[in-house]
């Protein structure tokens, strides 16, 4: 399934709702483009809602790390919300749970930016 | 080759689309062979990573080079070979993606994932001069408890002998 991404504002935070596969090619490219657009629009507090992301490969993991660093380098913060089991296990396996802040509840995630 | 064994070979172009094609082909074989959902996911991911490795690092995304994918299915296991036309590489030179200094790297996790998700994994010099990744998964009915369960997902990758 091709990746899709839309974003909305919630309590001053940009929530990006992503669905599909973040993999080499179009999936990774769309995530990169979305984050670039947000940063160009000076939106640096970003919550990636991965509830409908059922698959990530190493290229997608790399893109998530790149997004995290890009936002951090602009003084912002990128956090993750609603990981599916596969994505959760993959981040655990690659030790990226020690890098990303991960939430299972949107309200808690939004409050964490205060 | 015995009647119980099957062998498939396909030559892929060095392009992004080959990654999905290889994954789909191997998934069909894995499902037909009797692997469960979790093992199919691990096999599919490993094939993706192997072909991405050949596409990006081995063949350096050069379209005149090919990626050679082969599958061997025996009563015991499914073995996948991914051969590129690059310069080859030494596994020992691949950085550990779990090392503190590499955690924020945007690449370099493919080999790690293949090692973690497959039962056997090695890289040998290929007949093309490039690298040949050989990885296998034991079939769930061949007396290998755990290969089809969910417990292995977080397992640490096997160390190189």
Task: Give a nutshell description of this structure.
The complex is a heterodimer of chains A (114) and B (161). Chain A contains 4 helices and 5 strands. With 114 residues, chain A is an alpha/beta fold.
Protein architecture, described:
The complex is a heterodimer of chains A (114) and B (161). Chain A is α/β, with parallel strands linked by helices and 114 residues long. Chain A has four helices and five strands, in the order ββαβαβαβα. Chain A has helices at residues 26-40, 58-73, 85-93, 106-111; strands spanning 4-10, 13-22, 45-56, 77-81, 102-103. In chain A, helix 1 packs parallel to helix 2. By secondary structure, chain B is α+β, with helices and mostly antiparallel strands. Chain B has a single domain (6-151), classed as Heat Shock Protein 90. Chain B has helices at 17-33, 37-58, 110-117; strands spanning 6-13, 66-73, 77-83, 120-125, 131-138. In chain B, strands 1-2-3-5-4 form a five-stranded antiparallel β-sheet, covered by helices on one side. In chain B, helix 2 (37-58) packs antiparallel against helix 3 (110-117). The two termini of chain B are 28 Å apart. Mean pLDDT of chain B is 89; it is low at 146-161. Classes of the chains: A alpha/beta (114), B alpha+beta (161). Chain A binds chain B through residues 23-25, 57-59, 61-63, 65-66, 68-69, 86, 89, 92-96, 98-99, and chain B through 16-17, 19-20, 41, 45, 48-49, 52, 97-98, 103-107, 109-110, 112-113, 116, 153-154.
Provide keyphrases for this structure.
heterodimer, A: 114 residues, alpha/beta, Transcription Regulator spoIIAA, 5-stranded mixed beta sheet, 4 helices, 40% helix, 32% strand, B: 161 residues, alpha+beta, 3 helices, disordered C terminus
């Amino acid at each position: 399934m091709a990746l899709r991404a839309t974003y909305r504002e919630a309590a001053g935070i940009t929530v990006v709702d992503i669905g599909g596969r973040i993999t080499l090619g179009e999936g990774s490219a769309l995530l990169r483009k979305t984050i670039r657009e947000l940063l160009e629009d000076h939106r640096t507090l970003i919550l990636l809602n991965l509830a409908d992301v059922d698959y990530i490969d190493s290229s997608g993991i790399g893109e998530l790390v790149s997004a995290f660093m890009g936002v951090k380098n602009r003084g912002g913060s990128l956090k993750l919300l609603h990981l599916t089991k596969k994505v959760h296990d993959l981040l655990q396996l690659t030790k990226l749970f020690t890098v990303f802040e991960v939430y299972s509840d949107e309200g808690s995630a939004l409050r964490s930016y205060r | 080759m015995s009647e119980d064994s099957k062998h498939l070979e396909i030559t892929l172009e060095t392009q992004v689309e080959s990654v999905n094609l290889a994954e789909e082909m191997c998934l069909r074989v894995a499902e037909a062979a009797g692997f469960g959902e979790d093992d199919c996911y691990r096999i599919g991911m490993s094939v993706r990573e192997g072909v991405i490795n050949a596409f990006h690092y081995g063949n350096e995304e050069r379209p005149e080079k090919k990626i050679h994918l082969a599958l061997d299915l025996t009563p015991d296991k499914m073995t996948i070979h991914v051969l590129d036309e690059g310069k080859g590489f030494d596994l020992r030179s691949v950085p550990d993606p779990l090392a503190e200094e590499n955690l924020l790297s945007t690449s370099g996790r493919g080999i790690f994932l293949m090692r973690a998700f497959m039962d056997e994994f090695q890289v040998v010099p290929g007949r093309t001069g490039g690298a040949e990744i050989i990885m296998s998964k034991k079939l769930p009915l061949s007396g290998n408890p755990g290969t089809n369960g969910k417990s292995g997902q977080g397992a640490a990758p096997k160390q190189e002998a």
